[in-house]
Amino acid sequence: MIRNYLLVAYRAIVRSKLISxxxxxxxxLAMASVILIYLFVTDELSYxxxxxxxxxxxxxxxxxxxxxxxxxxxxxxxAPPIGPLLKNDFGEIELxxxxxxYNVTVxxxxxxxxxxxxxxxLFLAEPSLFNILDITIKxxxxxxxxxxxxxxxxxxxxxxxxxxxxxxIGKRLKINALIDVEIIGVYKDFPAQTHWHPDFLVSFKxxxxxxxxxxxxxxxxxxxxxxxxxLLLQQGASAQxxxxxxxxxxxxxxxxxxxxxxxVPDGWVASKVTELTLQKVTDIHLYSHLDYELExxxxxxxxxxxxxxxxxxxxxxCVNFTNLSTARSQxxxxxxxxxxxxxxxRAHIIRQFLSESVLxxxxxxxxxxxxxxxxxxxxxxxxxxxxxxx
Length: 390
Hints:
Elements: H1 2-15, H2 17-45, E1 57-65, E2 71-75, H3 82-89, E3 93-110, E4 113-125, H4 129-132, E5 137-140, H5 142-145, E6 151-155, H6 156-163, E7 172-175, E8 179-187, E9 200-203, H7 215-220, E10 227-233, H8 239-243, H9 246-261, H10 270-273, E11 274-280, H11 284-287, H12 300-327, H13 333-341, H14 346-383
Parallel strand pairs: 4-9, 6-8
Antiparallel strand pairs: 1-2, 1-10, 1-11, 3-4, 3-7, 3-10, 5-8, 6-9, 7-8
Helix pairs in contact: 1-14, 2-12, 2-14
């Protein structure tokens, strides 16, 4: 019976070639558009959700206020003493890790010929970062190796770019022609769906060298707000309750430092001029538009706008499909009459017309998938995305 329905449906489609072509082409283009928008939306919403503890990972941000109390600067990073002091003062914080981005020149000696690159994605990072974020290590032991200064890990792509191999443990690189670092491992390239993509991870311990940054600066410099600081909260800990305690934390630590070093007037309150906030790592890409972000972020408004456009496109396509099918109904009245004469009841006729609609829709879907597969490389090139159909 089903075979008969499909055979008759096929013949009906072939008989009305123009109408069928318009139906299939219109529906296929709409489906292709919706599929592409769906892939984009799901890609945007998936940022930083691959971490095992993603619901407990936060980034510390810092706000500065002017004399009128208006926000004049909201940084995605904070001063170096803040992370360790937060970890020390609040038991709700299970782990803390700081990173610092540098733009540098990295070079190596290859057959006595100097080979160098300008790198924008070199980060100094603390060992605890590997216990907060899911970073897949392909070789080496960063937690152990990062306890020593002047050690580094490379991403897969970077290792191949410098050495044409991932077997790089023990090799050395020179940063800014001054700092010599030993490579202790390789990590898998970060997924496209994350808010940062480091090519190098250098031991944070390196910063303690007085010629680079100095341990004292790390402990006391409240002015250099360049350190991206990640927190892993304890299970069940409330980020809101933690943030509520930050004003007293700032008054205690930054207030006393400012009074001792900046000569602030009597009655000056640290928490009135600056504020610390927590931002979920999964909110960074779509909801964060702070000053000095690590990378350019997306915008949730555009995501929902595109999703609404997809619904509208599909709705219009369905209306057009229905209108064209309805317009043909009068031409097929004779066919329906003959079928009733031959004993077909209402259910049989409904199933017959539904079979034609399903066949048209499946053909349109197949064509839509082919269009998506054909044009996706071009879309990825134009948008600098890495969307995939499979």
